[in-house]
């Protein structure tokens, strides 16, 4: 609708979830832009652009290859959970509406646990039933307090800060509808795929967009990702055309007539004099004659019908014509009744006794 009305140049949108869940001083704004993107958020970092894949099981058609997932240590070193194996790449679907950071295959999850450590509450694997549904819960003192970097398509790397990777467990009770924080545990926003879901396509969820900027163009069938500059000043808007080319002209011509205004009366119609009242109608002589003939025909028809009805009524009262003698105190026998009506006359009691 917006494109048809020429308010945007393409069926494109861009989204940044922003830093959420951590301390207030480490949070940032979010952004959703229709028809273009914010070049301030994209910054000057390299980007990856892929083609929407309509032959995959990915519901959003944004299919990517994860070629590495690394744990980032305080001393500046990184450790890959792929352990240098090039055959460990993960094909995943980017879904901005999906809870958590990502669903991760069980083999990769096992390697993550070996490197990151941590302890489940009560030493049993526990999962959240809150906002980041079915992601992992840990004891607060043993959870992984480092960053994590996801490398895509051997092209760009998205670093997720620990304030977004490990967050308080937040739930929304149906009774109140308000967010409640469970401070006795920490929520690691990864969801290991195992058991009945072991063959599912991994999904990269909305929390990737805390640190990545996503642009999707359904006219060019492409999508792009940047490492977002979440601290940048927002507002450097640019439009995307049907070929996904960037233009500095974001809005259409402001002199274009508004579609809502064009549906109403023109401005000059209110000052015009009201139309003259319709002149009274006069019937011609032929029309008057036709009406009179029709009235006479109707009266004659009623008289004929009345005579026919009266004649049939007299014939029905004549003896021997369609007349059946029956007791006067009984109703007529319905034609659908299985037995004729009859008097129920009690039989005489036997006067002789044994």
TrEMBL record:
Keywords: Membrane, Transmembrane, Transmembrane helix. It comes from the Eukaryota. Residues 256-285, 317-354 are annotated as: Disordered. Residues 341-354 have a biased composition (Basic and acidic residues). The chain crosses the membrane at residues 287-310. This is Peptidase A1 domain-containing protein.
